[in-house]
What does this fold into?
Amino acid sequence: MEEKKRIVFILNPISGTHSKKEIPGLIDKLLDKEQFDYELRLTEYAGHAAEIAKESATEGIDVVVAIGGDGTVNEVARSLVHTKTALGIIPCGSGNGLARHLCLPLDIKSAIRIINACRIEDFDYGVINDLPFFCTCGMGFDAFISLKFAEAGKRGPITYVENVLKEGLNYRPETYEVEDETGAKRYKAFLIACANASQYGNNAYIAPGATMKDGMMDVIIMEPFDTLEAPQIAADLFMKTLTNNSKIKTFRTKSLRIHRETEGAIHYDGDPIMTGKDVDVHIEHMGIKIVTNPEAVEDNSQPNFLLNAFSDFFNNINNVREDIGRRGHRFQVINKVMLRKLSKL
It folds into this structure.
């Protein structure tokens, strides 16, 4: 008889946007106990998930499952890199960037069934100033919005777009020196993002063509844009068309050094942190094992939800209209164009 795999579930009871009261019962009911011996661990303080995951990897546990939002997933994943222990995900966050990129189901019951299938693959991950990330990292407006999004009283795509449009009116771009294996270039940029995976979360695609298996990161440099261009950029994020925007410059590289004129914020998987003027980013090729979906299929219902989200937002954007004043008529024209595009998704 084949020896059972050992699996540890790490549950952050306060992260994300969903109630987790039913999750322990669902695990006990739905997990294939002929295949797994399992243990459920609850986190008690910041950093506890990383400690549990590291301990589990040291003990040779086969799979450690992060139950929570992107922060919990990152915390668990960074303790499993370059080990034989695989990361599993039961997504319960507001963004669920890594889960969405991997086409993992957001429904808890379906996520447990994926774990039962236990298909494990190797993937890349990134490192920014010694901090591992698995989806994206960045600086400039990218990190600034992460701060605003973290502070927001509500979460989700409407909040994200609202912050992009409102704060973008006043944010001042910075000058960066960007160096890769081809040499150094200077950019005046609104943001610089480095993507291992395709999206931030909430199906906001910063790098639609990114893959976690090529040993490269997609670098996205967003040039300064004006008030009337902001809504289109926000829409492009959700329509997977950002790289077609004239304000976007992209390239791929294995490593990157960025120098900026002042210290400031960076983010890794949406978690913001203050750091110095020099920022180093690189990719660790095939450095983490992840339980994947053997029947990966995109959720075709998402565009309709996004259409409703954008419609709701643009019908209630009085605070932004006040900022653009007499340009309101032109802004309404852009709204109609964007909604037509979204309705075709």
Notes: The CA atoms of residues 68 and 92 lie 5 Å apart. The first helix runs from residue 23 to 30.
